[in-house]
From TrEMBL:
Pfam families from the UniProt entry: Trns_repr_metal
Keyword terms of this UniProt record: DNA-binding
Organism from which the protein derives: Acidaminobacter hydrogenoformans DSM 2784
Signal peptide: none
Keyword Signal: no
Protein name (record): DNA-binding transcriptional regulator, FrmR family
A single MF term (Gene Ontology): metal ion binding
GO biological process, one term: negative regulation of DNA-templated transcription
Amino acid sequence: MEVYSDKTVEKNRKDIINRLRTVKGHIAGIEKMVDEGKGCEDVLTQILAIKSSVHKIGLMVMESHALECLLDPDENGKVEADRMEHIIHMILQFSK
């Protein structure tokens, strides 16, 4: 199993920030489209693309969080049941 290093954490953080900035740019583009009176189909197509991007960002954040928690055991080398339950709950809530 790959060690979840500080380098990996930093790379994931940068990837998430870059994706968020891309989404921000897409939202500005949609605002411009609406302002210019572009067709509903074009606007909705862009909104669907943003929705998909945001979902992918959420998955990245959950994966990072889950890996950090799973690879950060207590002094006995075990992951606390409460922490694991919390991670599972978050994943289930996100997938609804």
